[in-house]
Predict the structure.
Amino acid sequence: MTDVLTFGETMAVLRAVEPGPLRLAGSLRLGVAGAESTVAIGLARLGHAARWVGRVGDDEFGRLVLDRLRAETVDITHASTDDAPTGLLVREQRTADLARVRYYRTGSAGSRLSVGDLVPALADGARLLLLSGITPALSTSALAATRAAVARGRVGLGGVPRRQLPGHVVVASRRSGHAAAAGVVGDGRRGGCGRACPGWRRCRVAAR
């Protein structure tokens, strides 16, 4: 059985090598980025069976994402391609200490994630389902997919934007009765328990 199943958007990254305005960059470094797939890669490197589910475009960036995940031994059996483009993140190193990041992900393949994408992966089973507050905010279909996944059971929540809940990491299960999962899937805007939880600044909920 898969140890951890995660899903979300993974994008291609173009990163300036030297500091300065992007238009003056002599070269850009190509890579991939995505909160959920990054965790999957880390877990795979630690020897766990990690699976990522998501959509990428039928383009070179999409093939790059799948190649990188496959090379890291992340299971991408249930990943799919789409006629929409793969999302793109461009990182401009303005100075040695200051970076500017721009996202080009509106209407991207990753934002088209749906319940149907997750059903086969969920049916295969996993010990833990890891998700972030980013995914349900991508689109209404991604929000529906997140709700469907949480309804299946054991859930881990992470990757909440620091501006919303500083240092907030939650692991919860459907049986815990805690509001952690509801905070993410209730309105698609808040991550974790939200301010409704008395300990929202340092919330740690052990999975049961």
About this structure: The chain is about 25% helix and 25% strand. Confidence is low (pLDDT under 50) at residues 159-208.
